[in-house]
Amino acid sequence: MADLSAVAASAEAPVPARPRRDRWLIGAVVAVVALPILVWAAWTVLAGRAADDVDATWSLRCPGARVGSYEGERAIFSRPGWRCEVVLRISNQGDRDVRLGEVRSPILGPGGGGEIQALGSADAEVKGEGGDEIDAVWEVDLDVPAHETRTVTLAIGWRQDGCNSGGWLSLENWPTIELETTGRSIERDLEQTLVLRTFDDPHDERACRDG
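RE: above sequence
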C-alpha cells in the first residue's frame, strides 16, 4: 500500500518557477548590456558616415616664393624668409553639420628640427606656440553646415634655426584634420603631399648636427 503521507506531500509541492524566472533575469541582463553597445555602434556609424560625406582639399598661395613641382606634386622652393598660405577647403556634402576642430602636422611644431614651421594666421593660431612640441596643431573651430562649403587659411614658412639637408622634404597624407559631428571627433589624413625643396646652403650647422 502506498505511503499516504508521501503522496500528500507530493501533491502539495508547488510547481518550480525558478527556471522561468532565471530565463527572464538573464534576458533582462543581456538587454541592459546590449542596448548601450547597440546605441554606441549606431552612433559611431552615424558619425562615420557624416565624416565620409566631407570632402577636404588644400591649395598653396606663396607670394614671393617659388613653387615648382616634384614627382607630380607642387613643391615649395625654400629661401630665407619664405611664407605660404595653405587654403583648406572643406565641403560638407552630407545632411549633418560638422565642425573642423584642429589641423595637425608632423615636424612643423615649435620644437621641430626642419627649416619649415607652422605659422599663425587670421583664421588659425598655432597651439603651444613658443613651446617644444615637434608636431604642429592649428586651432580652427570652423562650423561647416550641411551642404555648404567653407575655407580656412593656414600658414607655413621659414624656420631660421632649422636643419637643412639640401634635399627634398615630403609629408604624405598631409595634413590631418579633426572633424566633429554628432558629438564625436574623427581624424582624417588628407590624400595630398606637402613637398619642400630645402635651401641649398646650410644656415644652421648646429641644428643639423644636433638632429
